[in-house]
């Protein structure tokens, strides 16, 4: 393993900023590999070097293996951090990086292939006798075979695209009458969306919680876990609120699940950061999948464990991070993360892209913001409309919930609508507060979205922020880019 001096970042937005920050801690140079529309972003402003790798559509830029490698080499980088999403779980990319002399900051291509592939992971787990959701992941993909297997499993059954991800490519089959049509349409959609028609089946668990374990392989063959997160608050199978540690695990369950997570990772010869996901229902847990990358929700683990996972990733990739038996790691307190999206919470969450007029995150003890945009930046429709992740830590879960609600209420985003009011209602819901929520929490209580309320407090808050900025702008007209006039009468003033 070679020492790392310059890290190319094959990603964008808040994760690119997160990687830049970790590189700064280690005194490393950064090269941002970005698409042509991403020049008005925070990562672009923070990176030491930047190279445009192509136009906005992801296939021509962020998903283009050769363009990323060529640009990293041209900039003199010696390594690539893939972040999450895009090429982060692409084994060919990991392999091509290494072939071109670039250290891939992540697991080996081999580990991505065996553990990251949903079908091969199941085969490996089954062989080792680890608990899996009952299902079928055979090579015979004839509709009649899949239909017969679905009946054997027992409805409801979920049909999933083998190459799917990010909550996409899944269909729920409630009974036999719908099964044939749904299996066929799942195969067709899998082919067009993911380039492979292969599907597999799983028993649908209707009262489950999503629990996952952060794993870390130090590269010497040692794998440890850094405890658990709960991500049961999901919309269309995508996480919106995550927390560490899970409020649902007994010490016994936590120990057993942690052991299973480490076993599967060790079998896959895992190095670097990864996540082992489980569903937990009625006290029984089942392996769901392994994500062979850093996870969006990694900050909640960092907060309760007191670690910097991205720094650990870079040190591991250059061979100087090892676990010492004397390092006792135990979680402390409670951390919650909310994903703030540019969307209209009163219209079913439709994206609200455009220019952010003004943006302010309230400071305070143990409040953390991971964000890729600043005032006057533009959220385009090309990419995920996430504006920021808001993370808090407090001594207990109830206190962390209160802190998060307060923090979100005091956050200001003008120009685009955000899901902040939606997040606040979720956090304040009795079932969330009790910690009993399952993955069906959102569809049960928030299927219709939320209704608009305009409180006097909100109006007062907005009026205060506007008047402060109008005054500041008048006093400092030459400040340029980020202090442009904020007028309540301008066309992009729409509030949160
Ligand atoms: P992806 O890789 O697309 O994220 P996952 O298999 O990790 O897909 O599942 C995402 C979410 O979908 C889970 O957290 C859970 O809420 C739901 N889900 C997946 N499989 C099942 C299942 N067998 N039963 C119930 N819910 C499921």
Describe the structure.
With 496 residues, the protein is α+β, with helices and mostly antiparallel strands. The chain has 3 domains: 6-105, Rossmann fold; 134-203, Dna Ligase, domain 1, CATH 3.30.1490.20; 209-445, D-amino Acid Aminotransferase, Chain A, domain 1. Helix content is 34%, strand content 26%. The protein is built from 16 helices and 23 strands. Helix 7 packs across helix 8 and helix 12 packs antiparallel against helix 13 (420-427). The model is unreliable at 477-496 (pLDDT under 50). Bound molecules: adenosine-5'-diphosphate (ADP). Adenosine-5'-diphosphate (ADP) is lined by residues 133, 158, 164-168, 202, 204-205, 208, 210, 234, 237, 277, 279, 288-289, 439.
């Amino acid at each position: 393993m070679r020492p790392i001096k310059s890290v190319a970042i094959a990603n964008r937005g808040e994760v690119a900023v997160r990687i830049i920050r970790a590189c700064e801690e280690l005194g490393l140079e950064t090269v941002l590999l970005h698409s042509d529309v991403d020049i008005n972003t925070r990562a672009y402003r923070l990176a030491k070097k930047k190279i445009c790798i192509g136009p906005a559509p992801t296939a021509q830029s962020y998903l283009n293996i050769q363009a990323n490698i060529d640009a990293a080499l041209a900039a003199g980088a010696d390594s690539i951090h893939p972040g999450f999403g895009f090429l982060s779980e692409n084994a060919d990319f990991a392999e091509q990086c290494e072939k071109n002399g670039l250290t891939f900051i992540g697991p080996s291509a081999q580990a991505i292939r065996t553990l990251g592939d949903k079908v091969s992971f199941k085969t490996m787990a089954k062989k080792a006798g680890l608990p899996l959701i009952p299902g079928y992941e055979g090579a015979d993909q004839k509709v009649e075979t899949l239909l017969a297997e679905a009946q054997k499993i027992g409805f409801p059954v979920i049909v999933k695209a083998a190459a799917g991800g990010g909550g996409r490519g899944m269909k729920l089959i409630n009974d036999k009458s719908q099964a044939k049509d749904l299996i066929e349409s799942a195969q067709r959609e899998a082919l067009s969306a993911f380039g492979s028609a292969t599907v597999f089946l799983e028993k649908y668990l209707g009262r489950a919680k999503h629990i996952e374990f952060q794993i870390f392989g130090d590269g010497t063959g040692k794998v440890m876990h850094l405890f658990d997160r709960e991500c049961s608050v999901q919309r269309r199978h995508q996480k919106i609120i995550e927390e560490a540690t899970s409020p649902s695990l007994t010490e016994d369950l936590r120990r057993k699940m942690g052991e299973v997570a480490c076993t599967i990772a060790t079998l896959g010869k895992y190095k670097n950061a990864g996540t082992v996901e489980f569903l937990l229902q009625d006290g029984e847990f089942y392996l769901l999948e392994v994500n062979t990358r850093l996870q969006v929700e990694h900050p909640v683990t960092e907060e309760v464990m007191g670690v910097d996972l991205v720094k650990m990733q870079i040190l591991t990739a250059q061979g100087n991070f090892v676990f010492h038996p004397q390092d006792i790691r135990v979680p402390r307190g409670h951390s919650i993360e909310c994903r703030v999206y540019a969307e209209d919470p009163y219209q079913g969450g439709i994206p609200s892209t455009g220019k952010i007029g003004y943006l302010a995150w309230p400071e305070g003890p143990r409040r953390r913001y991971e964000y890729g945009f600043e005032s006057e930046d533009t959220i385009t429709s090309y990419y995920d409309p996430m504006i920021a992740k808001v993370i808090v830590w407090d001594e207990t879960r109830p206190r962390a919930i209160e802190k998060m609600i307060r923090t979100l209420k005091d956050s200001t985003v003008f120009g685009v609508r955000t899901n902040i009011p939606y997040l606040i209602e979720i956090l304040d819901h009795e079932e969330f507060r009790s910690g009993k929520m399952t993955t069906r929490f959102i569809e049960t209580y928030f299927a219709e979205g939320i209704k608009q309320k305009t409180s006097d407090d909100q109006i007062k808050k907005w009026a205060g922020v506007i008047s402060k900025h109008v005054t500041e702008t008048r006093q400092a007209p030459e400040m340029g880019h980020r202090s442009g006039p904020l007028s309540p009468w301008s066309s992009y003033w729409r509030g949160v």
